[in-house]
Specification:
Elements lengths: L7 E7 L3 H13 L6 E5 L3 H12 L5 E5 L6 H10 L5 E4 L5 E2 L1 H13 L3 E14 L2 E9 L9 H10 L8 E3 H11 L5 H15 L1 E13 L12 H7 L1 H20 L2 H4 L4 H33 L4 H13 L2 H5 L1 H23 L18 E4 L4 E4 L1 H10 L3 H20 L3
Length: about 425
């Protein structure tokens, strides 16, 4: 499919992941996109040379910008956004996938709604093994941030937090936001301040389309200060100090907005921010996560063990932690479901069903494409259907065809 030229730029930061960058750009070329792509590359010399050579062989409109390998991620993004020349832009990790049809719809929405600063669809999470892909969740699916007041939008954002980092934004909005968040020196508040500031500047729409795929891949190195559970469990004093800096900058920004200043005093805005963020952190770590962290510190365990135990306790339900028998039974059940899902993915003919021809099924799906096999579980399908009934089948088809196109690019390199 050939896509019309739109006033939009896709920004891709990359660091020492040539194979994934090559797959993403080759996929975009196969999709015949017309929008420019800005690649921000801080890879070491070997990967950077491979990237330059690969990009030179593409017909895509790629603006390649190299950076020293020591360049901070936040600084690289800030500099890249300053060089975007289109009205709209979005970020995409080099190991993820963006869907061109959804980009078109998001840009069209922003063109028609000047009170919206950003737009996005639903994101699916996937893993890859050779020519098999498995979709296990739709992790970004909350409703639009469409409240009239900036404070209300921020409160809703952190009620069940999902990052807005990869939405499509008006370029001037992203530039203003990154000029502020570039001063944040840790991953957690760099990310959540971007979501908070964009939400404060205007509405962010969630369009009922499948928008992007997020790969289940480990982060580079051993990151710290990236998640409230990890940070609070290991270094609560450090988290509180970093929060104070973040809070003051966010408070200054909000207090200067006319819609906020007319309705709330500075002290009231501060109290609301504190309560909103306490709720966000507590919802992340829960009481059992705090208890696990306290127990780990009393036992004088190291940071890695403390964080691992806090994460485990935060994710598992209290009943599973309190009852070893119920916990074991739950693990067996989850394992059985996982095995069944994998078998459906590996041997779809055994089930006698295949996505297409008007068929849908509630629990799982398996799809034999031209270039790969795609499977998914009930969690992903139910979230698609819950957001919009039309996505029950169309969403699955978009995911399957997208991964099939990506597999073709990935396995021809």
């Amino acid at each position: 499919m050939t896509h019309a030229r739109i006033n939009y730029t896709l920004v891709i930061p990359t660091y020492n992941r040539h194979a994934w960058l090559a797959a993403l750009l080759t996929y975009l070329e196969r999709m015949r996109v017309k929008f420019p792509v800005l690649v921000l590359d801080s890879s070491d010399m070997e990967d950077a040379d491979k990237n330059r050579s690969m990009i030179a062989g593409l017909s895509l409109h790629v603006d390649y910008r190299p950076y020293p390998s020591t360049t901070a991620f936040r600084q690289k993004l800030y500099d890249g956004l300053m060089n975007v020349e289109t009205r709209y832009c979005s970020l995409c990790a080099d190991d993820d996938i963006i869907i061109p049809d959804a980009i078109d719809k998001c840009v069209e929405h922003l063109e028609r709604h000047p009170d919206h600063v950003g737009a996005q669809g639903l994101y699916f999470a996937f893993s890859e093994s050779e020519r098999r892909y498995f979709v296990d969740d739709v992790p970004y699916d909350y409703l639009s941030l469409d409240h009239e007041n900036a404070i209300e939008r921020i409160a809703f954002l952190f009620k069940d937090y999902q990052s807005n980092f990869y939405a499509i934004y008006r370029t001037e909005v992203q530039r203003r936001v990154f000029s502020i968040i570039v001063r944040q020196e840790n991953s957690l508040f760099f990310e959540i301040m971007q979501s908070a500031l964009t939400s404060a500047m205007g509405k962010v729409r969630r369009i009922p389309v499948v928008y992007a795929g997020r790969r289940r891949s480990p982060s580079a190195g051993n990151p710290t200060c990236w998640h409230p559970v990890e940070w609070l469990a290991a270094d609560p004093e450090g988290l509180l100090g970093a929060y104070a800096k973040y809070r003051n900058e966010l408070l200054e920004f909000l207090s200067a907005l006319p819609e906020v200043a007319q309705g709330y005093s500075r002290a009231e805005v501060g109290r609301i921010l504190d309560l909103v963020h306490v709720r966000y952190v507590f919802a992340s770590i829960k009481e059992q996560g705090l208890s696990a962290a306290i127990s780990a510190h009393l036992a004088r365990k190291d940071r890695v063990e403390t964080v691992a135990e806090a994460f485990k306790a935060s994710v598992l339900p209290a009943s599973a932690i309190e009852s070893p028998v119920r916990y074991f039974a739950r693990c067996v059940l989850l394992r059985a479901r996982h095995v069944a899902s994998r078998l459906r993915l590996m041997y779809p003919a055994l089930w006698g069903k295949r996505l297409g021809g008007g068929r849908t099924f509630q629990d799982q799906f398996a799809w034999q494409g031209e270039h790969c096999i795609v499977g998914g579980n009930g969690a992903a399908i139910k979230k698609l259907q819950a957001f919009d009934a039309n996505l029950l089948e169309t969403g699955q088809l978009v995911i399957c065809h997208t991964l099939d196109a990506y597999a073709a690019a990935r396995h021809t390199l």
